[in-house]
Amino acid sequence: MVPSMKQAGEPDETGQQSGFECQREEMSRKNVLYPFVFFILLPSLSSTETMPDSLSNYFPEINDDLTKVTWAHGVNSREKLQRELNGSAMMIEADVVLGTLIGDRSQQLIPIMAHPPENTSDLSLEMFIVMFLDSQAAKGMKLDFKSREAFSASENILEEHLINTSYQFEYPIWLNADIIRGPVNSKKEPVDPDFFLSACVTKFPIAMPSVGWTTEYGNGIDTGSYTPEIISDMTEALNRNLVVKPVTFAVRAGLAAQSYDALTNLIGSSVPGTTLTIWCSSPNDVTDMVLLRKLIDDIGVDKVYLDLPPDMMEALKSSAGNLIGKCALIAATTLLALGKYGLQQ
């Protein structure tokens, strides 16, 4: 009679698990606890000389509170760029698509600053960078690439003006793309993750990779979250492309508020210096501000950027009071219950 195969972790005749089985079970438990780790020890690729600086180093006045970083969003025209270069925002964000430059008779497709579905602009990517450099403004730039084609066409421009140049710049550069299909069953096409990340690692090591998920939210959709599955898709892409430096994960506010466990686990198990950038660009997004406030507070303001409209920032400040009020109410209720219990003894 052929003996049956013993399952992993099943005790033997003595009631004891084998050393190998105990080890495998322990590894399995660790994988459950830390499914999102993408910290790879590769000394040859982790030179601090190529690591992007934290914005706390560039803007010491924020005292390591990244939620105090201010943003100018959608700076996609010459007039708006000039205004923001002279304004108070610390970071200037602009969108990059393939399109045509207004006034260019050739109608050649080049990287321009515009947000889909727009495909014309009076500001090209090259003009944006030159104006930025010439201004010598003490600000950072975040370039949001809306397609693989837009990023591919931008690489030579980025290398020429930001890498292969004698210009000594000391400002933060972020390169952003939505590289993974995300919630809620998003049908938007992400930027190819391997194409984007490999370029960030090999060509633009001084830039901070800002990576996100495509999303389908608002306009009647108010329930959804960043699930462990789509977060795993992201961290697998980072591992696959040997991303050993910190990144910032761009997450949509309404969805982030519903993703406490997944996002706290993600940041807690990632490379030191990794952050969240919580964003919202639509007034139709339903966001639980109390839950969002709790997420920010528990992850820590030294690990969370807020790129939110002014009204949401005000609501978030108010929610801090609501959260404190709820905690105080719970504490008071508990003390009252304990008091009643004591009187009954």
Automatic annotation (TrEMBL):
InterPro entries: Menorin_dom. One of its GO terms (cellular component) is extracellular space. Residues 1-23 are annotated as: Disordered. Residues 65-312 form the Menorin-like domain. It comes from the Eukaryota. PANTHER family: CONSERVED PLASMA MEMBRANE PROTEIN, MENORIN (DENDRITIC BRANCHING PROTEIN). Belongs to the menorin family. This is Menorin-like domain-containing protein. It comes from Cimex lectularius. The lineage of its organism: Eukaryota, Metazoa, Ecdysozoa, Arthropoda, Hexapoda.
